[in-house]
Amino acid sequence: MSTTCQAVILCGAISPEREVSLRSGKAVARFIKDSQLVELNENILPAWLDPTKHVVIPVIHGDFGEDGQVQAACEARGLAFAGCDSAASRLCIDKVATKKAMRAAGLPVAPEVAFKGTQKPSAEKLVAELGEHLVIKPADKGSSVGLYVLNGLAEVEAALAEIPAVGQWMAERRIQGREMSIGILGGKALGVVEIVPKTGVYDYKTKYTQGSSEYLVPAPISADLALRIQRAAEKLFAVTGCRDFARADLFLEPSGEFTFLEINTMPGMTETSLLPKSASCVGIDFATLVQQMVAPAFTRSQLHNTL
Q1: Which SS3 state, helix, strand or coil, does residue 152 take?
Q2: Residue 307, exposed/middle/buried by CB under 10 A (0-12, 13-18, 19+)?
Q3: What residue ranges define each of the domains in the chain, with the CATH number in brackets?
Q4: What is the pTM of this model?
């Protein structure tokens, strides 16, 4: 990897996932030589960044980092940066739009009902369309922020009453099965990881609390099934316009069929994160993973600066 430009790792920013971003940023910075770690305290790209001197490594989860804002700001200033571009980031943070793209590509997705916080459907309507076992979550947040896992009409009614009258939301049929995740690096799928949360639900707290979940690395599934998931994940990466890296989450049903939940363009890089676990399945350690994640950005910087 070229070190002509300095890597500037951006983390923090203002979002519900700030603390996770800070942890991810520190972990990544350890393995990029001569990098500068910048903790953002506002959702603004630093003015001192220079396309001829810096390559940006955004490690910002949620608002500003995953919704295309920081990517668009870099693009406007000619700054090379790691990860998906602004268009792919905007698409993938929108779970409803992503599912539409997945369906168009023939990828398996669960049925959903999208709604605004100001225009909530009735509990009866959701249960009639999706069944009594369902999930409600923000349509444009990550890390399972605001996740409701519900059983029965009464729980659905209570959740709808609690949900604030703001933002975009999505109700989805709850898939009964084994939860899994797979990383994609440079368009190539890594290993499948199975997640076994001790509480039964893989929510925000469970994701980022050590010891709250068991991870089976790699997932105990057949080689044929693993290959089918890998090929489907690569297709998902391509149809959503991703580049460099991403992580796809899915459920494996008892029938042997699998259903994708979403694709994450800014996966966590903490000690409990799934992308490093997925990489380890194919013999890629954390340091090598970080190097491979950011290398394309340095290549793009070199190309841009020689034009």
Answers
A1: coil
A2: exposed
A3: 6-85+287-306 (3.40.50.20), 112-173 (3.30.1490.20), 176-286 (3.30.470.20)
A4: 0.89
